[in-house]
Design goal:
Largest sheet: 15 strands, parallel
Helix content: under 10%
Distance between the termini: 35 Å
Structural class: mainly beta
Strand content: 25-35%
Number of strands: 29
Shape: globular
Length: about 350
């Protein structure tokens, strides 16, 4: 693999720059309508809404681990959840399914501390701009086990979560663990969770977190379980973070252990205590980001062993410290192609496009 060597990334002061006619019902259609009234709605193979038509990019697009990109519920039925019971039923069903969330879905805490499992091959997408998940969070992955150190055959995989507002969870808003792979978290709004907003750990891999807004939250993005979890995490945790708006989210934007490479590009940072921390020999490529009023934009000397970080083409404005560079990192283009915005465009492009209601 081609390796990058660090470039200088000190502070810079660049300028910011009518329905179709109805056909006559047949006797068959009339019978189907009557059946729906008698037994209630069941999933139908309706066309997916436009909001599910976009294609995952970054690490979620890579052909690996028997999964060619991230397609979620494509090819399966489309259902709409308006109640908590419907939502929890649909997201846990086997097989491909697109779950459209409508209105506010309140998740109970119960015995799960508010974390509710999502099965493989699911697209979960909010309808409109106000669909909301509150009170609990989504759990993607098998139960935690230190004894499992390689991807199991039944690892949870192929999940898309888009266009939702998450808040008020009693634990994480989204937790991804135990070798889950090919996950795309895109165009959501995250705030006021009790722990992480989107935590990715325990060997999870091939994930993209894109075009989300994080605000009113403390520990935003954790990548890597803890300093002693190399057996599961080393050589995995390949995650792309791009075009996210870290809108005064305090820390862990993200905080990375072991992941190599983690690709952090074209994100807008505003008023954070720190942006990126690379530790425990993690390898981070940090490029084309815009940091405004961030105490520590990016660090490798944080806690635990030092990480590696290559920074290029970032802009720092009113930041207290420079970006810390160290070592070499695997080139993300080894895995996928991507196109950068200029860092000076980020303060305009990202807030205008990030978050729920913007797809």
């Amino acid at each position: 693999m081609r390796l990058l060597t660090p470039r200088s990334a000190g502070p810079s002061r660049l300028p910011v720059r009518p329905p179709s006619p109805f056909r006559r019902r047949t006797a068959r259609a009339a019978l189907a309508a009557l059946a729906a009234v008698l037994v209630g709605p069941t999933p139908t193979a309706a066309a997916a809404p436009e909001s599910t038509a976009a294609t995952a990019d970054g690490f979620a697009s890579v052909n690996a681990l028997g999964q060619n990109g991230t397609t979620g519920g494509a090819g399966g039925p489309v259902v709409t959840a308006t109640t908590t019971a419907q939502f929890l039923d649909y997201i846990s069903r086997p097989g491909p399914l697109t779950v459209q969330a409508s209105g506010t879905i309140t998740l109970p805490a119960g015995s799960t501390d508010g974390m509710h499992p999502v099965a493989s091959d699911k697209t979960i997408v909010g309808l409109g701009g106000s669909a909301r998940i509150t009170g609990g969070g989504l759990h993607i992955g098998l139960p935690a086990s230190d004894s499992v150190t390689s991807p199991p055959a039944n690892a949870v995989h192929n999940i898309i979560i888009r266009n939702l507002r998450f808040d008020g969870a009693s634990d994480d808003l989204i937790n991804i663990q135990m070798f889950s792979h090919h996950i795309w978290i895109d165009h959501n709004d995250f705030s006021n969770g009790d722990d992480g907003a989107v935590d990715i750990k325990r060997g999870s891999d091939y994930v993209t977190v894109s075009w989300n807004r994080f605000h009113d939250h403390d520990k935003t993005l954790l990548l890597g379980h803890d300093d002693d979890n190399a057996a599961q995490d080393r050589g995995r945790l390949r995650v792309t973070y791009h075009h996210n708006y870290f809108d005064a989210s305090d820390q862990r934007n993200p905080r990375i252990r072991f992941g190599d490479p983690a690709h952090v590009y074209n994100n807008h940072y505003r008023d954070n205590s720190y942006g990126v921390a690379s530790t425990m020999d993690a390898g981070v490529v940090l490029e084309g980001n815009y940091f405004f009023s961030v105490n520590n934009p990016a660090r490798v000397d944080f806690s635990g062993d030092l990480g590696r970080l290559v920074a290029r083409a970032n802009i720092l404005v009113d930041c207290n410290h420079a970006i810390e560079n160290r070592g070499s990192v695997t080139e993300p283009r080894t895995y996928y192609a991507y196109t950068l915005h200029q860092a000076a465009e980020v303060p305009t492009v990202v807030p205008a496009g990030a978050g729920a209601g913007k797809i």
